[in-house]
Amino acid sequence: MNAEQVLQTIQNENISFIDFWFVDIFGELHNVGMPSYAIDKDSFVNGLEKLDASSIVGFKSVNHSDMILLPDPTSFKILPNDYDPGNRKNARIFCDLYDGSTNKESRFNRDSRGIAHKASQKLTEFGLTHTNWGPEIEFFVFDTINVYPSPYAATHSYGGSGYSIESKESPWAKGNVSTAIDLKEGYYPSQPKDTLEGFRKDVCDDLYNYFGIKIEAEHHEVATSGQCEINLVYDEMITMADNVIAVKNLVKVKAKRKNKVATFMPKPIFGDNASAMHTHQSLWNEKTNVMYEKDDEQAQMSQIGRYYVGGILNHASALCAITNPTTNSYKRLVPGFEAPVNVCWGLGNRSAAIRVPMYNRNQEKSKRIEYRVPDPTANIYLLESALLLAGLDGIKNKIDPGDPIEENVYKLSTEKKREYKIGSLPVSLKGALDSLGSDSNFLQKVFTKDFLDAYTEIKYKEYTSFAQTPTAWEVSMYADA
């Protein structure tokens, strides 16, 4: 839609309020609502003078805090009823963020959506028109999470702290013989064990009917206690990033309406599989998939595609600061839980960091790579941008990824990994941030130094804060040592 069509739809559909959406530098959704009668054509030209940027973490200081929200009419969508128990009809529009005016030069350099726009413009330098993206979004839906004795104690543990997860599917819940799922045994169960099939389908229905988001599949994932996955049909870069934000928010809203708790935290359950956000991607020049090469006997992967893979693998450690941005992310990236910990690629090989799906040959449309490292705490705009820039750096510098690994990487010996030149991902958020500090040149034409400095400073503080907090496990292991 353009602005005129949006305004006409607001009138025709009798929409009461417009929610203006934007994300902070970590991908958290923020919203300001305005009554529909307060919106006019000028709102889409000069923007909305509604943002105190000093109140958003990582944005602005209090003495330079006035910013403009510029609504993007192409992102207009009517919201499902779950968003308003008062039965008003609401719509949402994503906003771009500007300093002082809506001139192109005033685009805020810490606007994640703006970074993704800027990254996508780099494609023309490589003879490309667009990219397609298809994330697999995993998450948990619990009946409740209890923090003892209080949420405050979780970060100030000298008073004693702990937490428990309640789920009808958990093997530790009482009286749930028909719905109990053991650790690592939750892949594709049928009802009654899968207690969330109806919830996922409700989410998928609303995603399609209201947001126009096409779903490839939904299912229960490997972990117990309500681990879910929703796969989105591929779309272009900005559209897909907007869609991921909508999916994550809708899941949380619908869970809340059912008195449940949805979390995109990667590893909430010790000893069980964690949530990932495997990200499929392909490169296009108009209608030609430039990753596809029919005559390549090994993978039907073009040389450009291989260089793209090489770029991502070359920068994998630095990328972790963006693709796996929390301390909890590195509780997922450990051996034994189907998460990638080794820097290599393979054909249909789910033990590698990059997998080239090999379901069918001679299928140009579906030729792609799947990067298996990211988790759903990542800011999707930054994730797509960083992966794209790493891959383009591989094309520019002709970084060869070597031969694909055919063996189960999880079972390779240290000596064999050295022979294959397989590296390892960082084991902590600090390690990822350190890697980004020494390897960020491939990002800096899009991610400004100002943005990277602000991002890493906050993330280092996050790491230090959690590193100082004793856990119940540490106390039980070392208190009597």
Automatic annotation (TrEMBL):
Subcellular location: Cytoplasm
Residues given in the record as ATP binding sites: E216, H280, Q281, S282, R350, K365
Pfam families on file: Gln-synt_C (PF00120), Gln-synt_N (PF03951)
Binding-site residues, Mg(2+): E136, E138, E221, E229, H278, E370
Binding positions for L-glutamate per the UniProt entry: N273, A274, R332, E338, R350, R372
Needed co-factor(s): Mg(2+)
Record GO terms (molecular function): ATP binding; glutamine synthetase activity; metal ion binding
Cofactor mode of binding and number, as noted: Binds 2 Mg(2+) ions per subunit.
Main localization of the protein described in the UniProt heading: cytoplasm
All residue ranges annotated as the GS beta-grasp domain in the record: 13-102
A GO BP annotation: biogenic amine metabolic process
Alphabetized UniProt keyword annotations: ATP-binding, Cytoplasm, Ligase, Magnesium, Metal-binding, Nucleotide-binding, Phosphoprotein
InterPro entries: Gln_synt_N, Gln_synt_N_sf, Gln_synth/guanido_kin_cat_dom, Gln_synth_cat_dom, Gln_synth_gly_rich_site, Gln_synth_I
Reaction(s) this enzyme catalyzes, per UniProt: L-glutamate + NH4(+) + ATP = L-glutamine + ADP + phosphate + H(+)
Keyword Flavoprotein: no
GO cellular component: cytoplasm; membrane
Residues with PTM O-AMP-tyrosine: Y410
EC number: 6.3.1.2
Every GS catalytic domain range: 112-481
Enzyme kind, highest EC tier: ligase
Keyword hit for Transmembrane helix: no
Matching NCBIfam families: GlnA (TIGR00653)
Family: Belongs to the glutamine synthetase family.
Name the record gives this protein: Glutamine synthetase
Organism in which the protein naturally occurs: Nitrosopumilus ureiphilus
High-level lineage: Archaea, Nitrososphaerota, Nitrososphaeria, Nitrosopumilales, Nitrosopumilaceae
